[in-house]
Amino acid sequence: MTTVGPDAAEGRDVTSAAVGVRSSRTAMTVGAVGIIWKREMLRWWRDKPRIIGSTGFPLIFLLVFGSGLSGAMGSLIGDGAQAVNFEQFIFPGIIAMSVFFAALFNAVSLVYDREFGILKEVLVAPVSRAAVAFGKTLGGATVATLQGTVVFVFAPLVGIRLSPLLVLQLWPIMFLGAFALSSMGVAMAARMRSIESFQMINQFVMFPLIFLSGIFFPLQGLPPWMGVLVRVNPVSYAVDPLRRLILEAQGLPDEVLGRLSESGLALSLGGQQVGVAADIAIVAGFGIAMNVLAMWLISIRD
Amino acid sequence: MAHAQDPAILTENLTRRFGDLVAVDHMDLSVGHGQVFGFLGPNGAGKTTAIAMLTTLLRPTEGRALVAGHDVERDAAGVRRAIGIVFQEPSLDERLTARENLEFHAVLYGMPRAERPQRIGEALRLVDLDDRADHIVEKFSGGMRRRLEIARGLLHVPAVLFLDEPTLGLDPQSRRSVWQHIRTLRETTGVTVFMTTHYMEEAEFCDRIAIIDHGRIVALDTPEGLKNLVGGDVVVLTTPDAQAMVDYLGTQSLDATMRDSEVRVEVDDGARFIPRVVRGFPGEIDGASLRRPTLDDVFLKLTGRTIRESELNAGDVSRSRMRRSMGSRGRR
Ligand SMILES: Nc1ncnc2c1ncn2[C@@H]1O[C@H](COP(=O)(O)OP(=O)(O)OP(=O)(O)O)[C@@H](O)[C@H]1O
Ligand SMILES: [Mg+2]
User: Is B81's CB within 8 Å of A21's CB?
Assistant: First the structure.
């Protein structure tokens, strides 16, 4: 509260900055979110080993799972030139995995900030703590989206064509998934005091979410309990639209595409294919809930 | 609404517990606008904890505090808009450059874009880091990092500035230029400064000083007033048998302390005392010195340690607890 008005004349205004004009409250919040985002980006860009490592990681998965298993699995739907083989099936999943790993992993920066004292500097600033959580999440989501984009260069290796239009469709969906998982990561990191314990909990949460999301296997013929888990897992709904958009853009005949869910390549609920719009709504809902949770947890004072 | 007639900082019964430990114990303080207020106390006295509560980083367990007229509990946002702080612990992003660290701060504090380059440039020049502005902080020495943190703390000019051991680890020249700047700042902007320090000459610079021990204020006065607590002169005698000397002075109801072969005693009239004691111990006194009391003497008298000692032996809490239970010191 700045002292402006009739009272201000009585005493010296001691609340506002003695020097300099400050920006408005809204401008300050936007500025704060922006600079927190920018800092995440700078830190990521300067950490070259991390970028190299997280680019090599999906390549290994693609080679091992894709090439290694595609012989054993054969084509999943269609035949001949119009078949979808296992490598192609898994490719959108690898993009998703890169995005989600990066999104969850990036939240460690909040624990790092606490451990190295930077968080104190941010928490005494005249910025709402919700803005702090939001800036962190946006930063993590952007880093994760870029990290997923790197996987695009491997598309020719598995015979997937990515048109510029398709890329423009994929980005917002990747970003939304990244935002949801990044929010979850920030929520987990908000009260965590050591980097080691965060890594531990993170892995504990991350592996079931990733492995039970249909990234690595078709959803057809799963044991019933696993089918339920996959459908309860919000990450599945972030993977599904990526896979659907990518496979649909590969020029397969309509009748083959119609069999996507029967063959377990697309998510279905109660026998009905979940549409891209429904996927997006579910992921957005989860993301917003996690972000609100993160904002709340970060606002708790010791 | 906050006005000059309210104190800049006001605390009532301010208390913080960590489990059984009472880090800050029912502290009452009032700091006027434009004052430089100092906290002097041994390691673990609760200085940083008190500052953490005043800057809204920690919640008080009991009592309340107003900073620039805003309640730290109910109006934390108001407090944050009015303060600046240099933390005791490092708080820079080591992966950013010096300039980027300052930019980060400037934006968080809502400094208009047009002002930023100039203000950041000035701040970097003040601490003599302008030639390193675009270097990554990871490569900075400890003193350079500290200077950068101070530049950051002074970048926006708040109503109340908290400095927790600001110049620890700085060379004398940097310390002088930092203090010169704070003085100028205070004259031109009327900023209130709340600081902790282990350097005597910085403590002398305070308008008022609170000596705190075990979370309590044991004395609060101007530097001069505190020195009067010791009263008279401080005499230091060098003698091979220091214990015998202390015992003897005890019988004269004088309060003496010893370290190695030195005995330190407070007397009313040092000039008369020295010849007397030399006559009483012929040939056993190798040296005698006489001086006016310093804040260090006051600190020793009130806490049982010299500032240097408390700085060197971090965590000598058990020793001071023992002294306290022996009831050797009066409390306010
Ligand atoms: N987060 C915490 N949890 C538990 N105990 C704490 C915590 N922070 C401080 N303490 C304890 O509170 C007491 C006061 O600590 P504080 O850091 O305020 O001392 P200080 O006066 O700043 O000391 P120094 O001169 O060493 O900086 C100490 O005994 C310390 O161990
Ligand atoms: Mg301290």
Answer: no
C-alpha to C-alpha distance for A102 and A47, rounded to whole angstroms:
13
Asked if residue A273 is part of any domain, the answer here is: yes
Domain membership of residue A5 (yes or no) is no
Which residue in A15, A117, A124 is closest to B69 by CB distance? Answer: A15
Residue B161: phi and psi, rounded to 5, are -115, 125
Give domain B9-222's CATH architecture.
Answer: 3-Layer(aba) Sandwich (3.40)
A interface test, pick of B59, B107, B118, B146 with most A CB neighbours within 10 Å: B107
CA A265: distance to chain centroid?
A: 21
**Cut 0.95: pTM above it:** no
Residue A11 covered by a domain: no
Phi and psi torsions of B235, nearest 5°? -115, 130
B44 lines ligand 1 (CB under 6 A): yes
Question: pLDDT tens track of chain A, all 302 residues?
Answer: 343 333 333 333 444 444 444 568 888 899 999 999 999 999 999 999 988 988 888 888 888 876 666 665 666 665 655 667 778 888 999 999 999 999 999 999 999 999 999 999 999 999 999 999 999 999 999 999 999 999 999 898 888 889 999 999 999 999 999 999 999 999 999 999 899 999 999 989 998 998 888 888 877 778 888 888 988 999 999 999 998 899 888 877 777 777 776 666 777 777 777 888 999 999 999 999 999 999 999 998 88
Positive or negative, the Cα torsion across A56, A61, A62, A67? positive
Q: Domain ranges in chain B? A: 9-222, 227-325
Beta-sheet strand order (sheet of B233-238): B256-259, B262-267, B233-238, B287-291
Structural domain including A292 reads: 24-299
Shortest distance, CA A43 to any CA of chain B (angstroms): 6
Structural domain contains residue A247 = yes
List all residues 6 or more positions away from A192 whose beta carbon is below 8 Å from its beta carbon: A110, A111, A114, A198, A201
Domains of chain A: total: 1
Contact B156 A20 (CB under 8 A): yes
State the DSSP code for B240.
Answer: S
Angle between helical axes of A86-106 and A195-211 (0-180°, round to 10): 150
Q: Is the dihedral of CA A24, A26, A28, A30 positive or negative?
A: negative
C-alpha span between B329 and B303 (Å, rounded): 7
Query: What is the ipTM, given to two decimal places?
Result: 0.84
Is domain B227-325 in CATH 3.30.70.790, yes or no?
yes
Nearest residue by C-alpha to atom 9 in ligand 1: B49
The pairs formed by B140-148 with CB atoms below 8 angstroms and a separation of 24 or more are B140/B98, B142/B169, B143/B169, B143/B170, B143/B171, B143/B174, B145/B90, B145/B92, B146/B170, B147/B174, B147/B178, B148/B92, B148/B98, B148/B101, B148/B102
